[in-house]
Amino acid sequence: MNIPDRPGTAGSTGPGAPGPLGAPGPVRLEGRAKVTGAARYAAEHTPPGTAYAWAVPATVPRGRVVSVDAGAALAEPGAVAVLTHENAPRLKEVEDATLLVLQNDRVPHRGWFVALAVADTPEAARAMATAVRVTYAPEDHDVVLTPGHPRLRVPEEANAGVPGSRERGDFDGAYAGAPVRVDATYTMCALHNHPMEPHATTARWEDGRLVAYDSCQGANAVQETLAGLFGVDKAQVTVVAEHVGGGFGCKGTPRPQVVLAAMAARHTGRPVRLVLPRAQLAAVVGHRAPLVQRLRIGAGEDGVITALAHEVVTHTSTVREFVEQAAAPSRAMYVSPNSRTTHRVVALDVPSPSWMRAPGEAPGMYALECAMDELACAAGVDPVELRVRNDSATEPDSGKPYSSRHLVECLREGARRFGWQGRDPRPRSRAEGRLLIGTGVASSYYPVFLMPSSAEAHVTETGRYRVRINATDIGTGARTVVAQIAADALGVALDRVAVEIGSSALPAAPLAGGSSGTGSWGWAVHKACRALNGMVDGHGGTVPPGGLTATADTADDVPSDPPHAKAAFGAQFAEVAVDVDTGEVRVRRLLGVFAAGRILNARTARSQFAGGMTMGVGMALLEGSTMDPRFGDFAERDLASYHVPTYGDVHGIEAHWIDETDPLLNPMGSKGIGEIGIVGTAAAVANAVHHATGVRVRDLPILPDKLLGRI
Question: What global pTM score does this model have?
Answer without folding.
Answer: 0.96
